[in-house]
From TrEMBL:
Species whose genome carries this gene: Crotalus adamanteus (Eastern diamondback rattlesnake)
InterPro entries documented for this protein: Glycosyltransferase_G1
Protein name, entry field: Glycosyltransferase 1 domain-containing protein 1
Domain of life, source organism: Eukaryota
Length: 66
């Protein structure tokens, strides 16, 4: 992971605290925040929580890498 680069700008960081499982649908948020980040690179989503569904957590992790 590259991290968040800050160069003399305000950052907008959204923190999602949840156990990663399909029912909470964090993949929807990833898509929305990805589009928003493309429009404004100051916007970031951070997901923190245990992998409640390990297979789904891996799917989320792979999508974040893309």
């Amino acid at each position: 992971m590259d991290g968040i680069v800050q160069v003399d700008q305000n950052l907008y960081i959204f923190l999602l605290i949840c156990g990663l499982r399909r029912v909470k649908d964090p993949l929807y948020l990833l898509d929305v925040f990805s589009e928003w980040h493309q429009e404004d690179s100051r916007v970031h989503l951070i997901i923190v929580g245990p992998p409640a569904d390990p297979a789904f957590a891996k799917e989320v992790e792979e999508k974040v890498k893309r």
